[in-house]
């Protein structure tokens, strides 16, 4: 089974180490997740919906500025 495009963007954001680029990677991942969720037309809660919610929570954490 092919990997969903949102997962590729999400993984790229998680692996991004350049803090100057991180914001654009996070935004691309969030946009891809929201687009995919919209394409599902609210088809009920599935494992993928749960994974997307988890991914969005993790992306919010990445957007937080590091302490120090």
Short descriptors:
68 residues, mainly alpha, 3 helices
- The Rg value, from CA coordinates, equals 13 Å
What's the SSE pattern? HHH
Measured between the Cα atoms of the first and last residue, the distance is: 43 Å
Residue runs with pLDDT of under 50 for 5 or more positions: none
Number of helices: 3
Q: For the report, how would you describe the main beta sheet?
A: none
Number of strands: 0
Structure description:
The protein is mainly α. The chain contains 3 helices and no strands. Helix 2 (19-39) runs antiparallel to helix 3. It is elongated, with a radius of gyration of 13 Å.
Present the secondary structure layout:
Layout: H1 5-15, H2 19-39, H3 47-63
Helix pairs in contact: 1-2, 2-3
Short description, anyone?
With 68 residues, the chain is mainly alpha-helical.
């Amino acid at each position: 089974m092919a990997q969903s495009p949102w997962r590729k963007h999400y993984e790229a954001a998680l692996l991004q180490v350049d803090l100057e680029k991180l914001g654009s990677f996070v935004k691309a991942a969030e946009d891809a997740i929201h687009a995919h969720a919209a394409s599902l037309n609210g088809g009920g809660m599935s494992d993928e919906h749960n994974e997307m919610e988890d991914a969005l929570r993790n992306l919010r954490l990445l957007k937080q500025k590091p302490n120090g």
